[in-house]
Structures are given as structure tokens and as C-alpha cells.
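User: My advisor, Dr. K., asked me to get a structural model of this assembly before our group meeting. I'm new to this, so sorry if the format is off. These are the inputs:
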Amino acid sequence: MTASPDLLLSPVNHASGDVVLPGSKSISNRVLLLAALARGTTLIRGVLDSDDTRVMLAGLMKLGVSLDRVATTEVEITGGIPFERDDIDIFLGNAGTAFRPLTAALALMGGQYRLSGVARMHERPIGDLVEALRQLGAAIDYLGNPGYPPLAISSAKINAAQPVRIKGNVSSQFLTALLLAAPIYTSRAGQPLVIEVEGELISKPYILITLNLMARFGVVVERDGWQRFTIPAGAAYIAPGLIDVEGDASSASYFLAMGAIGAGPVRVHGVGVNSIQGDVAFADTLEAMGATIVRHDNFIEARGINVAGGQKLRAFDFDFNLIPDAAMTAAALALFADGTCTLRNIGSWRVKETDRIHAMHTELEKLGASVESGADWLRITPPASLAQWHSASIATYDDHRMAMCFSLASFGPVPVTIQDPDCVSKTFPDYFKVFSQLVQK
Ligand SMILES: O=C(O)C1=C[C@@H](OP(=O)(O)O)[C@@H](O)[C@H](O)C1
Ligand SMILES: C=C(OP(=O)(O)O)C(=O)O
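Assistant: The format is fine. Below is the predicted structure of the whole assembly, which you can bring to the meeting.
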């Protein structure tokens, strides 16, 4: 794919205003699949309209799911299993939340399918999920490198007599995928499906999103800590009628960060105190850095210092394992801190849209920061003075979050160029339009 033209951002001084957030990617793709698997009709409102949800929708349509796009952000789905069509090729771009759950669902459903994505998706691991599905009898072949997409799935006899063991230290999406797909088995079987997590589980709040949404579709998972999950015998999805998707809490992080460094207030609408998304905890990180946060039922507001006027955020040293996506926003904010900032326990960054530890390290250095990094950590010392900032052209590595994070660098004293800004289309096609409406010179 050809890259979009560079975007030059001149220095900005102030940010304030209101943002209506696009729908949550994590909730949208889970709910689209759940509605497709559920008996009955679900109207889903507030669905994210972006690359990641478009590949999920296109995949479901190819599978013969009855799906009506009522409006850009509204989809009506009449579900039921098995899906109508098989023996098809499904392309899922670089959407982890589409690729991993669909792999599990189709492997348990029966039928022949070939699943592929963009080149980077073929470098993102899926072996731990495939191993778990094979324990259940699933027939999955690697069409390229072992442990990675593309995959070929064939019909097989599924049997969950023994607990299935799955690793969760590379991505929580493998456990999410198995949980979401489990009722395809339990609805037809006279026995429960028991999942045991082997070793450490990362990104835990995403599992809570999965369990919450499964419950809304009538499947209550019995849970013993983070170790053991039981989907009861006979458990089947039933359409809840209507689902409203929350605003995306990871997308909210960029705007809340703008309120924190551009005086504010910036108010994001669509997420609030009762959000089921772990990334709302990014507001706590901002508070620790010196921002003032107001939390409401359906909005969060940030106000803070004015870095253009010479003020600084408090430096931090945090474990970011629970909020790996919003953690990138914290890394960009380190440019405005009063000392060295450390991000720990972010090893999953290595296998996301790009190697994010490498990408962050390289691009923050271009702006004048001193950066060190290791297998699962990043340490950033901001430019010592305004004179130490360098104007830079930031590579974005086809990673939407690199583009969105580095827009925050425009609160510094130098112009910043964002390469291939349209890569934000993975989760937030309008990001730079909304950004420009909030900032003032
Ligand atoms: O389940 C989800 O919706 C997600 C889980 C996280 O991935 P990992 O579990 O791989 O960290 C996160 O980074 C991703 O953007 C969305
Ligand atoms: C890691 C991400 O995406 P994916 O759902 O493809 O894993 C992300 O959006 O930051």
C-alpha cells in the first residue's frame, strides 16, 4: 500500500474542547462476533467504523451472517450457528481482535476456511492459540511460518473432555478468543469447557471486557482468579436485542493527554466511571503526572499545565502491563516531564502493529530525548531545555498509535512531521481532523 502524504504539525500552545469518541475497537469487534453467534437479532449502536471493524464485518458477511448496516455506526445482526458459508478465504488486515477470535470460532464451528492478513499480521504470533485449539481436536495448518498466520482451518471432531491449557504471556487475545468461541462447543455438548491459563497472563483488563460482553449475551463464565475459566455445559449465546458500544478509551488517551499538557479543559464523551475498558485507568496515570481529572458517568475531563509556557509534568516510573495501548501515550508525554520516565512490563509492544519499543525509542530520540530500552521496558529522558528539541520527521511504521501519540509532540517548541498519517485508519480515521479542532496556536 502506498503511504499517505506527510503531515506537518506546527507548534501549538493550547488545547481545549469536547470530543465525542468513536466506538471502542475492542468492544465493537467482540460484539459483532457475539451477535453473529447468538440466536436472535441484535442492534449494535455506536460501532467503530475503521479498518479493524471493516475487516470483521466483511469477514462475517462472507461467512453468510445476516447483517444489515443500518447507519455508519449502527449494525443489525441476526445470528446463529453454524454460519451459512464455508470453503472461503477471509482477509483480516492487521486486526488482532478480528483474527484471533475468528480463528477460534471457525475452528470450533466446523468447515474449511483460509485466514490471512497484511504482511505484519503474518509476523504476529498465534501459536499459543492454535496449540490450545489443537488440544480440543481442531484441525489448523500453518500456510506460512509455523506459529504465525496465514492459517487453514478444516472440519474436525471437537472434544473438551480435558481442561484446555492456554498461555497468556504473549497476548491476552488468545484467551479472549477461546472464551468467545467456547459456547459454539458448549451449546451443542453435554459437558462444560474448562480453560486453564498456563503461567503469566498479560493485559488482564481485556479479559474482563470479554467476560462482561459474554454475560450480556447470556453466557456467564465461572472464574477462579485468572487461572481457570469454566463455560457451563449447555451455555449458548442469546441476542440481547440492543447493545450500545462505549467510546474508545485508548483513543481517549490522546485527547486527555492534550488537556494535561495544553492547559485544557478537554472533555471526552462516551466513556466514564462505569466503563468496562481498562484503558480508562490512563486518567490515573495523568493524575499522577500532575493533571486534574474529572470523572463522570459518560465523560472524562482533563486539565493541566501549559508546557508551551514552560511548565512540566511529573516524571513517572510505572508498570503498564494493564494498559499496554494507552501506555504509548504516556511514553509520548515523557517528552514534557521534569525528569526521566520509565515504562515497565510492556514486552507485548514487540509483537503489536510494529515493534513498538523499537519504534518509540527511535522516534523519541529524533526529537532530542535520550532513550534506553530493553526486552520489556523503555526509559525516556526528555530534552534538557527548549533548545535541545530537534524538529523531526516521525516515521509511523504503519502503526496508528505511533501517529496519534506523536501528534502530542507538537506541544513542543519545534515543527513535527508525521509520516503516513492515514495509518490512523486502523482505529480512528478522523483523528487528525479532531486533533486540529482542539488545538490552538
Ligand atoms: O483484546 C483486546 O481487545 C486487545 C488486547 C490487547 O492486546 P494484548 O492482549 O495482545 O496485549 C490490546 O493491546 C489490543 O489493542 C486490544
Ligand atoms: C495492539 C493493537 O491492536 P490489535 O487489536 O490488532 O492487537 C492496538 O490497537 O494497539
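One thing worth pointing out at the meeting: The chain has a mean pLDDT of 97.

User: Perfect, thanks a lot.
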